[in-house]
Amino acid sequence: MISFASFPSTSEASASYAQARHPPEVEEELGMDLDEDDFDEGVQRLTVPGEPITSSHAFMRGHGTFVDNEEVIASVAGTVERVNKLITVRAVRSRYNPEVGDLVVGRITEVQPRRWKVDANSRQDAVLMLSSVNLPGGVQRRKLESDELQMRTFFEEGDLLVAEVQAFFSDGAMSLHTRSLRYGKLRNGQLVSVPPILIRRLKSHFVALPCGVDLILGLNGYIWVSKHVKESEQEGEEGFDAEAVYSNRNDVIDDATRIAISRVSNIIKVLAAHFVPLTDTVLLEAYEWVVDQESHVKDLLHDEFGEHLVASLGVGIRQ
Amino acid sequence: MPRPPSPSIPEKEFVYGALKQSLRLDGRAMLEMRTPTLTFGPELGWVECSLGKTRVLAQIDGKMVKPPPERPLEGMITIHSELSSMASNEYELGRPSDQEVTITRMLDKVLRRSDAVDKESLCVLAGQRVWHIRLTIHVLSDSGNMLDCACLAGIVALKHFRRPEVEVVGDEITIHHPSERAPMPLSMHHTPYCFTFAFFPDPSTPPLLDPSHLEETLSAGLLSVALNAQRELCVVQKAGGVPLAPEDVLRIMDVAVQKAKELDKIVESALQDDWAGRNVEVR
Amino acid sequence: MSSRVEILNDGGFRSDGRKQYELRDITIDLSQQGTADGSAIITHGLTQVMVTVFGPREAKMRSQTLHDRAVLNVEMSVAPFSTGERRKRSRADRRILELSAAIESTFEPVVQTSLYPRSQIDIYIHVLQQDGGLLQACINATTLALITAGVPLLDFVCAVSGGVHSTEPLLDLTTLEENDLPNLTVAVMPRTRKVTLVTMETRLHVERFRDIFELACEAGQTIHKEMKRAVKDRTVALVGAMDAGAKHPSGDPDRDLTMEDR
C-alpha cells in the first residue's frame, strides 16, 4: 500500500499527513462528536459536503442534503438538524435564506414598473410591489396610475427600508411588504452588516437600547442602528403623514446620540467578528461594559479591546 | 450574449433516448469515427480535411528569420487559427468564447508543444537564420468535432509540406528553388492524432467518439486525447464535465490507441497517393 | 535549456528533499476576507492561491441568467510577482482563460446550481505565488471557498498533480520538475472516486500514464482528508462560538426588559 507523507517528512514513513501536522491532543478534540452516528438529543453533529449522514429509507432529506445511492448526503458544511424523519444540514455561514414573516432590512437597487428591486443579502434581489406599500392618503386606498409614475418619490435607488417577507415567487425570489406603520423607509442612523446566522429569531426585532439608540435586527443580517424615536412621535394610524414616512431628511441628531450610535455599531462589528449571536441582552451587556471602561468609541476597533469585550461576556471564540 | 438556440426539448429527449440504446442519429456505432477525407492542394502544405460536414483548411508557409536570442538553435512554429462566423453562427468576432479558447490552446498543445516537429532541424545557421514555419488553420464549416478535424488537418499539412533545400557555405546561405533541387520534408518526431469523446449526463449512456454537432451540444463533457501510433499520449484534456470513474478513463485510452493506429494508416496512404501523383521536376 | 538538476537521485530523493510520493506541505486558511461570502487561501509548498466567492447573488447582467439554475462565473488573475520572472499577464491571456474555463466546467456539475435559479455565483481566483501545481491549487482553493460560502456541493473536488521521471511516478510537482517531466493534473471527487478533470500536456507512454493516473486518484483522497479537516476545524470553531453566545447565562430569551411591545 502506498502512503503519502507530508513535507517535511516525519520519522514514520507511514504517518498520515494530518497526524504529522497536528499534535495528538488536537486530534482528539477534532474527533469529538463527529463520528457519532446516532441522533442523541443535545449532541451536535457536524458534517462536510459529500459526507453520508444516514440511510434514505429511514429518513427524509431536507435542505443542505441530497440523496445518492440510498444515502442522505450532506451538501454543505454545518450542523445536522433533525425534526422527526426530516434531516437538514444548516450551513454555518451562508447567504440569507428567507422565510415568510421574517423581518428584513434592505436597500432599493432598482425601480421597475410597479415594483422595486431590493437587495436583502439573499440569493436574488427581493421584490417590493407597489401594491405592498402604504401610500399617502389612507391604507386602503386604490393604487392609481399617478402612483406608478411617481414611485421614486416613495423609494428611490439607494434608499434603505425595513420590511417583512410576504411570499415567494416560483423561482425562489422573495416578495416583501411594508404594510405596517413600523415598516418603511429608514432614517437617522447607520447600517451594519453581519452574517445572517448570527441574528436569531426574537420576540421583537425592534430593540430600543436605553442609551437612546434604536436597533432593527433584520434577519438577513442587515442591522439598522438609529436614533431613538419616541413612541408618541411615531405616526399613528390616523395621522399617516406621507411627507414624514417617505422623507429623505434626517432629524437633528445631537453629538451624544451620534457617539452612542457609532459605539453600538462598533460593538456589533466586534461581536460579529467573533461570531457571537446577537440578541438584545448581549448587546445591552456589551454596551454597559464598554461604557464602564470609559473608553473612546474608536478603541473598540482595536483587536485587543474587542477580545476583552468578548471575554467579558464569556462568549465567542478565543483566537 | 445571445445564446445559440439549443435543440428543442423533444429533440433532446429523442437523442438521449437513442444514445441510451447505443444508437446514433447518423447510424454510426458509438466508437466509430467519420472517415476523414484529405484533399491536397496544388501547393505543398495545403490540406483540406473533412470529417463529414466539418471542414478545415490548413496551409503552411515557411520563411527565414533571425531566431530570438534565447533560442538561437531552434526554428519557430506559429499557429494561427481562424474561427469566423463562416464556420458556424456560434462564433463571433470580438472576445474569444470559451470554446474558441479551448480549441486554440488544444491546437497549440497538440501540434506545437508535443514536439511533433524537430525544431532543431529547422536551424540553418546558429543564431543567424532559422526557418519560421507558419501554420494557418481556417475552419470552413463546423458540424461537430472541429478540434479533431483541425488537428488532423494541421498535422497532415506539416507532413505534406516541403521546405526548399538550403546550402550553407561559411556565412553564405543559398536557398535552392524547388525547380533546382528537390525540397525537403520537415523532420518529424512523431505524428499525434487527436480524438474527442463525448459523455452524457445519464451514466448508463456509453461514451461516443467523434461527436456530431448535435451530440456535442447535448453532451455533458468532452474528453480529448491526442496520441501517436506508437502509443504515446501527448495531450489528455478533460476539463470538467460529468465525473467519470478512473477505469472508464483508462478504457478510453485503450480505444484511442486502436483508433490512432487506424488513422495513421489512412493518413500515410493518402500522403503516399498524393506524392505518387505529384511530379516534382528536378533539373 | 534547463540545468541538469537531478530530479530523483539514487537515494530516492527529489530536488527539494521529498520522497517520490510525498506531497508538499499544505496550509489552509479559511478566514473571512472582506465582504466575500466565502474565501480560502491554500498553500501547496510555495504555490499559494486565494479564492473569494460571492453569491449566490443577483446577476449583474440579466441577459446572462438562466431560468433554471445559477450561473458560475470564474475570473482568474495572476499576480505579476507570483513567479521569479516578473511579468504582467493580461486578463485575456489565453492560458488564463483556459484555466478559468476549465475550473468553471469542473465545478458546474458539482455545485447544485439548480437550487438557485436566476442567480450568479462569482468565483475570483488570485494566484499569489507559483511553484508548480497551479491548477491543482486553484481547484482545491475553489472547493474550499465554495464550502465556506455555504454553497451546496455534491462533494469536494480534490486535485493533485503528478509526473513521471523515466519510469518512476512522482506526485505534487514543483516548477522545476514540471519543466522537465511529463506531468498531469487530476481532480477527483472523493466520495464516488470519480474523476472530473484530467489534463496532460506532454508526451507520455500509455502504460506510464496509467500508473501515474491511478496514483494521482489515490493521492486525491489524502488531499481530501486535509481539506475536510480544515473545514471541520472551522465549523467546530464557529459553531462553538455561537453555542457559547447562546448559552450565555443572562441570555434568557424570556427577559423582555428592553424590548418594546408589539
Automatic annotation (TrEMBL), chain A:
In the record, biological process GO terms are: CUT catabolic process; exonucleolytic trimming to generate mature 3'-end of 5.8S rRNA from tricistronic rRNA transcript (SSU-rRNA, 5.8S rRNA, LSU-rRNA); nuclear mRNA surveillance; nuclear polyadenylation-dependent rRNA catabolic process; poly(A)-dependent snoRNA 3'-end processing; TRAMP-dependent tRNA surveillance pathway; U4 snRNA 3'-end processing
Q: Which UniProt keywords apply?
A: Exosome, Nucleus, RNA-binding, rRNA processing
Q: What is its main location?
A: nucleus
Domain named K Homology is located at: 189-229
Q: Name the SUPFAM superfamilies on file.
A: Eukaryotic type KH-domain (KH-domain type I) (SSF54791), Nucleic acid-binding proteins (SSF50249), Ribosomal L27 protein-like (SSF110324)
| One Gene Ontology molecular-function label | RNA binding
Q: InterPro entries, alphabetically?
A: Exosome_cplx_N_dom, Exosome_RNA_bind1/RRP40/RRP4, KH_dom_type_1, KH_dom_type_1_sf, NA-bd_OB-fold, S1_RRP4
Every RRP4 S1 domain range: 95-166
A single GO cellular-component term on record: cytoplasmic exosome (RNase complex)
Cell location: Nucleus
Entry-linked Pfam families: ECR1_N, KH_6, S1_RRP4
What ranges does the record give for the region Disordered, renumbered to this chain? 1-25
Task: Give residue ranges for domain Exosome complex component N-terminal.
Answer: 46-83
Superkingdom is Eukaryota
Can you tell me which family this protein belongs to? Belongs to the RRP4 family.
Protein's name according to its UniProt entry: Uncharacterized protein
Automatic annotation (TrEMBL), chain B:
Q: Which domain of life is it from?
A: Eukaryota
A Gene Ontology molecular function term of the record? mRNA 3'-UTR AU-rich region binding
| Residues annotated as domain Exoribonuclease phosphorolytic | 33-164, 191-258
Per UniProt, subcellular location reads as: Cytoplasm; Nucleus
Q: Which keywords does UniProt give here?
A: Cytoplasm, Nucleus, RNA-binding
Q: Which SUPFAM superfamilies match?
A: Ribonuclease PH domain 2-like, Ribosomal protein S5 domain 2-like
Q: What is the protein named?
A: Uncharacterized protein
Q: What is the lineage of its organism?
A: Eukaryota, Fungi, Dikarya, Basidiomycota, Agaricomycotina
TrEMBL record, chain C:
Keyword line: Cytoplasm, Exosome
The residues covered by the Exoribonuclease phosphorolytic domain are 22-152, 155-219
The reply on keyword Cytoplasm is yes
Q: Name one GO biological process term.
A: rRNA catabolic process
Per the record, GO CC terms? cytoplasmic exosome (RNase complex); nuclear exosome (RNase complex); nucleolus
One Pfam family, short name: RNase_PH
User: Has keyword Cytoplasm?
Assistant: yes
Q: What is this protein called?
A: Ribosomal RNA-processing protein 41
Annotated source species = Pycnoporus cinnabarinus
Compositional bias of kind Basic and acidic residues: 245-262
